[in-house]
Amino acid sequence: MRKSSALAVALSVGLALVSGALADSPERIFADGVNGAKIHSASSFVCPQKIGSFERDAVGERDPRSGSVYCAYSKLDGVYGTIVLKPIVGGYDAKTSLAGEFEETESTGGHMIGENGEKIGPRADHAAVYTRTYEAAKLRDADFRILYAGAAIGNWALETTVEYSDPRDVEAETDFVNAVYSAAGAEIAQPQQAGPSAAH
Predict the structure, then answer these.
(1) What is the pTM of this model?
(2) Which contacts qualify for 169-172: CB closer than 8 Å, 24 or more apart?
(3) For the chain, how many structural domains are there in total?
(4) CATH number, domain at 86?
(5) What is the pLDDT of residues 153-191, one digit of tens each?
(6) Tell me: the pLDDT tens digits for 119-145?
(7) CA end-to-end distance (rounded Å), the chain
(8) 172 within some domain
(9) Containing domain of residue 137, as a range?
């Protein structure tokens, strides 16, 4: 009995390790696209090799429990952009979802300097993108800022963080956020609306 139990435990552990390794594999989460792009298989969202002056550094799984993934970008002079995509379960509120990031920024001395919500993208049905900006540090000739953005697109929440210097990187930050949400609105499938069945 003891040998059988030990064997069963060993097999269970082995299967769990294999399953975990497969679940964490970026190749299973993202498919290869044209020009080096990575396509999130579940949502069809595309993380291109470049977004404006930003270059992609990495893609991967952020939290296996929630099914969230990320695409990390950067550009010269220490400007960083991170995109997080996660499935929506039971509704989405950007301010609530990003509360942990807000608290962490505030705990290190950052203070909020702006909050907004606007539609980004060419279509009228694109969701409003909630944004909040923090001043994280004040230097002699520039302010180090962090922008958080979040929106529900289809059945997915798309959250973006950009760390940048103001005034030097304001244009790059704006272009990055606009590009991310404009593309997502076209790439991520919208939920199908139930309609009346056709008469035959």
Answers:
(1) 0.81
(2) 169/77, 169/79, 172/52, 172/53, 172/54, 172/75, 172/79
(3) 1
(4) 3.40.1000
(5) 999 999 999 999 999 999 999 999 999 999 998 898 766
(6) 776 555 566 899 999 999 988 888 999
(7) 64
(8) yes
(9) 24-187
